């Protein structure tokens, strides 16, 4: 079957066959999982891009079609199955590891054919609104998916969303992991839910990217306290469009430094950039940030001989946990899938391909003692996270507008 032809636009290919993005990466057509890249390249035809990369068009198109014929089997890698009595898995996956993780999931399902599974795991860039809508419309535990995966706070802790089901003790951590990876043993970090309701797969860390050419005579910031010190007002770019990570940053700053810390972060804001723009901010003509706060993954794109240097904060990279919620009532049916998702193989995809450190104790995250920062379970349990987020956003954006 011929899936691809040379005159198809890149955006159409990526949307219809997302498993091909990894192949494009290997041949130097980079970052097609990023919205910013698709905006630039999306309307170009496959033929024109291949010619620009000096890749033989016929050979490459044939390779793509052969790959799809061998691996797709007429089933979309991102959404599978439809039958009565099946296990349901839904949520969001970080863009850099979505396709390789889905490939491993499909391999797992091929081996475990007795499992009847329907899943929808979208890219994190799709946002949470569709998932929130599903949760709100469910309004009853039996209508919820059996397994939820996503980063961030608002979906899982707001009372009108997952919070109400947590109070009803619908969820249970059934991973069997008693102690998380040793990388999360630093002071004030305890990721394992003491109530045993929620589990985690890994974390998305936020680090600093410093443009030494713009920094001037200011010292390189090494801590979050340095960022909030007032020395970097109107000098910092933040990933506001990455809602999960931005929300985690606001909550952690509020927990550690209070409302004044959130206001100081707002005053530091120069502009909102997508991480793919952040790593190239030294090429900007105006409003060039001295510091960008970004997911650790994107530091892989920095040129070694350029003016940009990555700094892992000494007091810890603020994290956005990748949560997994699993239904207690379905424990026996879903245990095998949960063991796979929380296991070493998936942990290594997260850590080694996405630079999203895994909580699995068998995974080597290769972090050499680097620290993390997050608000902690006591703070979550003692506060209405939805109200905290609303207040933090108001304080942040009001301060950002001040001259």
From TrEMBL:
Annotated DUF1858 domain residues: 4-61
Gene3D superfamilies for this protein: Periplasmic binding protein-like II, SP0561-like
Name of the featured protein: ABC transporter substrate-binding protein
Keyword annotations of the record: Signal
Leader sequence residues: none
Coiled-coil parts of chain: none
Pfam family, one: DUF1858
Source taxon at top rank: Bacteria
Native organism: Fusobacterium hominis
A single GO molecular function term of this UniProt record: thiamine binding
Record GO biological process: thiamine transport
GO-annotated cellular components: outer membrane-bounded periplasmic space
């Amino acid at each position: 079957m011929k899936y691809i032809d040379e005159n198809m636009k890149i955006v159409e290919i990526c949307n219809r066959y997302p498993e091909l993005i990894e192949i494009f990466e290997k041949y130097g057509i980079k970052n097609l999982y990023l919205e910013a890249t698709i905006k630039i390249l999306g309307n170009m035809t496959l033929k024109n891009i291949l010619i620009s990369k000096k890749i033989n068009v016929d050979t490459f198109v044939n390779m793509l079609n052969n790959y799809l014929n061998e691996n797709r089997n007429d089933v979309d890698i991102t959404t599978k199955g439809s039958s009565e009595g099946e296990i349901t898995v839904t949520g969001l996956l970080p863009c850099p590891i979505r396709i390789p993780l889905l490939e491993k999931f499909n391999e797992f399902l091929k081996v475990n054919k007795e499992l009847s599974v329907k899943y929808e795991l979208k890219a994190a860039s799709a946002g949470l609104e569709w998932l929130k809508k599903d949760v709100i419309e469910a309004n009853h535990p039996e209508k919820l998916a059996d397994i939820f995966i996503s980063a961030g706070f608002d979906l899982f802790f707001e009372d009108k969303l997952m919070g109400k089901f947590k109070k009803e003790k619908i969820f249970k951590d059934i991973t069997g992991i008693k102690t998380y990876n040793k990388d999360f043993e630093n002071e004030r970090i305890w990721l394992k839910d003491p109530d045993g309701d929620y589990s985690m797969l890994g974390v998305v860390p936020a680090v600093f990217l410093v443009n030494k050419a713009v920094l001037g005579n200011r010292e390189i910031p090494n801590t979050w306290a340095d960022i909030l010190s007032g020395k970097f007002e109107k000098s910092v770019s933040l990933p506001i469009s990455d809602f999960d990570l931005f929300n985690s940053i606001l909550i952690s700053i509020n927990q550690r430094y209070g409302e004044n810390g959130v206001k100081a972060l707002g005053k530091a804001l120069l502009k909102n950039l997508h991480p793919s723009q952040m790593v190239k901010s030294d090429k900007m003509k105006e409003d060039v940030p001295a510091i960008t706060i970004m997911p650790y993954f994107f530091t892989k794109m920095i040129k070694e001989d350029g003016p940009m240097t990555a700094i892992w904060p000494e007091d810890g990279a603020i994290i956005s946990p990748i949560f997994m919620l699993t239904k207690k009532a379905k424990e026996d049916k879903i245990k095998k899938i949960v063991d796979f998702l929380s296991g070493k193989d998936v942990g290594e995809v997260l850590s080694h391909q996405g630079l999203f450190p895994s909580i699995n104790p068998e995974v080597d995250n290769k972090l050499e003692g680097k620290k993390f920062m997050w608000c902690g379970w006591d703070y979550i349990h003692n506060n209405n996270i939805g109200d905290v987020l609303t207040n933090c956003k108001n304080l942040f954006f009001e301060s950002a507008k001040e001259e």
